[in-house]
């Protein structure tokens, strides 16, 4: 599934003006990274997109409780999985999905090879995604703290 970059920019302008209307329940699922547009670029980074799709890059979002969301960002290759996990929350009208990864793990199948706590980011420097849209067709778009635009598809 592909989407036009200019169509995403139009949706982003609308989300900035009026909000995206997205809630925590709209985000729950395993989102496979499909396309990345680096900051200021109108062309997708084909190599990075292909590489991340090949590694099964996935943003898994769960939990809709008062405690917020739980995020897991992972890539896998030949049975090895590198994953970052931690809490997230929605803030603002667009909204922003703010998160912090507290732990990194390297797994071989179900066996943990490495597990380390990560330092907290400086106050006000937490990573986030400014949520643009989540379609009924199963895709989501957001802009990251670094300015890049990301397009995910819901993994079935």
Taking Cα atoms only, what radius of gyration do you get, to the nearest Å?
15 Å
Number of domains: 1
**How is the main sheet built?**
8 strands, antiparallel, barrel
| Portion of residues within helices | 10-25%
| Sheet with the most strands: spatial strand order | 1-2-3-4-5-8-9-10
Query: What distance lies between the first and last C-alpha atoms, to the nearest angstrom?
Result: 14 Å
**SSE run:** HHEHEEEEEEEEE
Top CATH class: Mainly Beta
Q: What's the total helix number?
A: 3
Shape: globular
How is this fold's topology laid out?
Blueprint: H1 5-18, H2 24-27, E1 29-37, H3 46-54, E2 58-65, E3 68-77, E4 80-91, E5 96-99, E6 103-108, E7 111-117, E8 128-134, E9 139-144, E10 149-154
Antiparallel strand pairs: 1-2, 1-10, 2-3, 3-4, 4-5, 4-6, 5-8, 6-7, 8-9, 9-10
């Amino acid at each position: 599934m592909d989407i036009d970059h200019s169509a995403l920019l139009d949706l982003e302008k609308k989300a900035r003006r009026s909000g995206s209307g997205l809630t925590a329940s709209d985000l729950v699922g395993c989102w496979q990274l499909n396309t990345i547009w680096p900051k200021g670029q109108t062309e997708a980074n084909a190599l990075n997109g292909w590489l991340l799709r090949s590694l099964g890059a996935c943003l898994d979002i769960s939990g809709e409780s008062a405690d917020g969301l739980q995020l897991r960002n992972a890539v896998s290759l030949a049975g090895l999985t590198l994953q970052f996990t931690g809490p997230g929350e929605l803030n603002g009208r667009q909204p922003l999905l703010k998160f912090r990864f507290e732990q990194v793990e390297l797994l071989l199948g179900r066996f943990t090879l490495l597990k380390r706590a990560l330092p907290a980011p400086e106050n006000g420097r937490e990573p986030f995604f400014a949520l643009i849209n989540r379609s009924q067709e199963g895709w989501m778009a957001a802009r990251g703290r670094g300015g890049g635009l990301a397009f995910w598809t819901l993994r079935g």
